[in-house]
Structure prediction request, 120 residues.
Amino acid sequence: MTKWIHLNHGDAGLRRFFARVLADLRPGGVFVFEPQPWKSYGKRKNASDATRKHFAEIAIKPPAFPALLLEIGFADCVLRGTPDDAAIPKGFRRPIYVATKPRAPPADGAAAAPGADAAR
Prediction:
């Protein structure tokens, strides 16, 4: 999904998407994503005039997504692994990241009720 957003809405659209994900998560919630390699963008860049334009202007490449998520406000972004199972086609062996929204302290300083900050 990130490649489609990126090619159709550029870096600004990708930033907007990540910011909306962060806003929609509960404190401590997680965002799991699997960015496609930059090489795969080239295969779809000519889908329309808009995608060609955005492709030419993209400055934020997929390896920079974790840093972008931290910049936007996620507490962390961890590479959980890359599947290496030979049964999985090469095009689907992409890195899997987990980004976590910061936990907000309770408003009154007391301990939060169990489950109050469960991820959605």
The longest helix spans residues 2-24.
